[in-house]
Design brief:
- By secondary structure, the chain is mainly α.
- The longest helix is centred in the N-terminal third of the chain and has 14 residues.
Length: 258
């Protein structure tokens, strides 16, 4: 601020203030400061990158994308920008464009786990499950204990109805983090499909123990309890699932909880 009193058009000082406002969660102030700086120095690519982050954090994703477009117009060979661009495109559900962006980045950073994993997620969303599997496997080749990639591989094999392979990946997650609610849920669903109802119930219980807001765990435990003729307890679970946002619980409640 002292510098700006003497040099009101000092864009570096304005950029620093914008960064500090962003870190403090004052996104509107950060946006105003950085937008003013950009008017003074529209070719200063770092300003566009800073304001893109502000837009992303404040939920203005279209503006975030346009800011990234401006950066790439100024510096198309700046590989580091492509990873951030891919993240924004995924948030906008522009999955094919996100894959292109991540390709650009991964070509220069072939061991960047986060970008490889995110590209795999984008492939999942467009239904290219084999490309997704290759990216998740690539992540695990780099970091064998990567929880996200192991969860995704377990879900891949669950989708293929190879429940033993799915369980192996979920167990791998739980070896690293024994409190991972989603891994217990997905392992429970796999055991449920194998008609191991005791094992499924135990894993649903653990999923809920470690995350009382795991709507799907309440949903599938409720469904299992119906099969086990525990109607009252089942309906309690189903109603809890619905309250937490599991819309699929509605049909079961209408059918079994009158």
């Amino acid at each position: 601020k002292t510098i700006l009193k003497d040099e009101p058009n000092n864009v570096d000082a304005m950029r620093l203030l914008g960064i500090l406002a962003t870190k403090g969660g004052k996104y509107k102030i950060a946006e105003q400061i950085l937008a003013k700086a950009i008017k003074i120095a529209p070719s200063y690519s770092l300003l566009w990158r800073n304001i893109s982050l502000v837009y992303r954090l404040s939920g203005q994703l279209e503006k975030a994308q346009k800011s990234m477009d401006n950066i790439l117009a100024l510096d198309p060979k700046n590989a580091s920008v492509w990873a951030d661009y891919g993240t924004i495109l995924i948030m906008l559900a522009k999955y094919k464009e996100a894959i292109v962006a991540y390709n650009e980045y991964i070509d220069t950073k072939p061991k960047d786990i986060k970008s490889i994993y995110n590209r795999g997620r984008a492939y999942e969303q467009i239904g290219d499950l084999e490309s997704a599997r290759k990216d998740f496997t690539r992540v695990l080749d780099i970091d064998i204990n990567n929880l996200n990639a192991s969860l995704s591989m377990g879900q891949y094999w669950y989708g293929k109805k190879d429940y033993n392979k799915a369980i192996a990946f979920f167990d791998k997650v739980l070896e690293v983090d024994g409190r991972e609610s989603m891994a217990y849920l997905l392992k429970g669903r796999s055991l449920h499909q194998k008609a191991d109802f005791k094992g499924a119930r135990a894993n649903y219980d653990l999923a809920i123990d470690f995350d009382k807001r795991n709507a799907e765990a309440f949903l599938y435990r409720g469904a299992l309890k119906i099969v086990q003729n525990q109607k009252r307890s089942a309906c309690n679970d189903l109603n809890r699932a619905l309250a937490l946002g599991a819309e699929d619980a509605k049909a079961a409640i209408a059918r079994h909880c009158k």
